[in-house]
Amino acid sequence: MLLQERREVFCPKPSSTGLSPKELPESALYNPDPIETILQDVHDHIVPGTTHWQSPSYFAYFPSTASISGFLGEMLSTGFIVVGFNCMSSPGTTEPEIIVMDWIGDMLQLPKSFFFSGNGSGVLQGTTCEAIVFSFSPWLLLQTKC
Question: Is residue 61 part of a domain?
C-alpha cells in the first residue's frame, strides 16, 4: 500500500493494539510466513494501534526525525548496529555527533563555553527517559540540599 493511501491514525485504540492473542499462533513458527502475509498482518493489526509520531498533524515528541535526512541517518545508524554512547564504545559514531552538536550550538549562538570544542562538553544519553532524569538532577540536588 502506498503512503498516500494510508489513513492517518492519531490515537490508538484505547485498550488494544488491535492484535488479539486468539489471532496469534500458539507457538513460534517453524517456517516463516511470506513477506506479503507479514506486511498485511502489520497493516491490519499493528498500524491501527500505533500512534504515528511523524504525522505532519501530530505536534509532540520528536518531529525532527520525520525528515528524509533523519530517516537516512537512522537507517545508517541502525545498519551499523553499534552502541554509540561514548567515544570508547564507538568513536566513529560519537565523534560526528560531537561535531554536529557544535554546529547546532553555533546556529543557536550559544557561548563557546557550551561547545565540545571549547571548555564545555556534554553527555550523550541513551534514551529520552535518561535525558529527562539527567536534566532534573541539578534541581533534585537543590531540593534535597545534598
Answer: no
